[in-house]
Q: What sequence folds into this?
């Protein structure tokens, strides 16, 4: 066990002694993660080990101004439930960027952490690069902003980020303009990543967020996508790769982006046929004839479509909710209405 170097001699000595006295209680590297698809006994065992590490560091993070959520065991074969620490401060009703806006009253702001060991992981290298001053100045850099990097000795680095829930496609798109703002932000994000030869390598809707916190049981909320206030971000770079040269990985990843767009946006082809053609080209397989789109080409094609639309077309209401892949047709908003939990109370600040 080495010395836990921190920002003062006192904290260095105290935490080094405490760490030794506690028997080096922290996990290393991948051990912090647990497989949610594992057998229940294995999952609970791994989760318990990870929780012990987080709980050990609870006073350390508190000294830095962060109060971790509490983990309450809900009974045998039941998932554990994270909930805010009652000792924490009350929620801010109108937080400013980079913190997420509020869409209902009974939730709390949180931040989350990723971990790296002594050897900087690829994930940490990428996150550091995406959060340099020059990278943040690029308007295409729609990746989750970092609040702070916290080191605990030489072996642990924690990345503190604001909570932007992965509800990027969950809630109502009122107009074509609202749909296009979301699509353009994601295409710009992948263009930015690929320009820097970064492959996200885990293109899923759950790895993109929106700066609005809502009740997880509320679906298709309206009025959350004010163009002047809404922001979108990619995150979760745990599987990402850094390449030395451009290659097939770029068009392959954009194929996955096209597939991610299918459910929330394929229905727009009824109003904008050229957008449907763009989705088709994004999803072109290697065996099909034609040019497979890079992120740059996809973004350029999309922006050409956007510029071709009039103001009236951009403000046209969206009538359909999603695209049903099995039936090959759109599902209207009337067929998929808004869903609200009984205790939902909307805030006007959003």
A:
């Amino acid at each position: 066990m080495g010395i836990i170097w921190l920002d003062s001699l006192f904290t260095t000595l105290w935490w080094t002694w405490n760490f030794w006295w506690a028997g080096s209680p922290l996990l290393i590297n991948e051990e912090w993660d647990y497989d949610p698809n594992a057998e229940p006994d294995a999952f609970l065992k791994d989760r318990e080990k990870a929780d012990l590490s987080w709980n050990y560091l609870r006073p350390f993070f508190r000294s830095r101004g962060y109060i971790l959520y509490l983990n309450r065991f809900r009974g045998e074969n039941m998932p554990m439930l994270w909930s805010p620490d009652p000792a924490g401060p009350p929620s801010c009703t109108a937080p400013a960027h980079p913190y997420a806006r509020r869409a209902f009253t009974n939730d709390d702001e949180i931040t989350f952490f990723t971990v790296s060991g002594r050897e900087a992981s690829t994930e940490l290298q990428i996150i550091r690069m995406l959060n340099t001053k020059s990278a943040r100045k690029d308007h295409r850099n729609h990746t989750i902003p970092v609040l702070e990097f916290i080191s605990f000795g030489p072996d642990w680095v924690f990345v503190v980020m604001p909570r932007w829930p992965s509800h990027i496609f969950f809630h109502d798109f009122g107009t074509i303009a609202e749909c296009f703002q979301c699509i353009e932000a994601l295409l710009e994000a992948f263009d930015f990543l690929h320009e820097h030869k970064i492959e996200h390598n885990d293109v899923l809707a759950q790895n993109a967020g929106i700066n609005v916190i809502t009740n997880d049981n509320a679906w298709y909320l309206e009025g959350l996508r004010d163009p002047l206030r809404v922001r979108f971000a990619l995150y979760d770079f745990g599987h990402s790769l850094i390449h030395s040269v451009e290659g097939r990985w770029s068009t392959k990843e954009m194929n996955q982006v096209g597939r991610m767009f299918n459910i929330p946006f394929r229905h727009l082809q009824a109003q904008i046929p050229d957008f449907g053609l763009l989705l088709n080209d994004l999803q072109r397989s290697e065996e099909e004839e034609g040019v497979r789109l890079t992120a740059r080409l996809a973004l350029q094609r999309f922006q050409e479509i956007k510029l071709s639309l009039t103001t009236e077309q951009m403000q046209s209401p969206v009538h359909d909710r999603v695209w049903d892949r099995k039936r090959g047709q759109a599902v209207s908003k009337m067929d998929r209405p808004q869903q609200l939990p009984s205790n939902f109370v909307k805030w006007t600040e959003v």
Summary: The chain has ten helices and 13 strands. Confidence is low (pLDDT under 50) at residues 74-82.
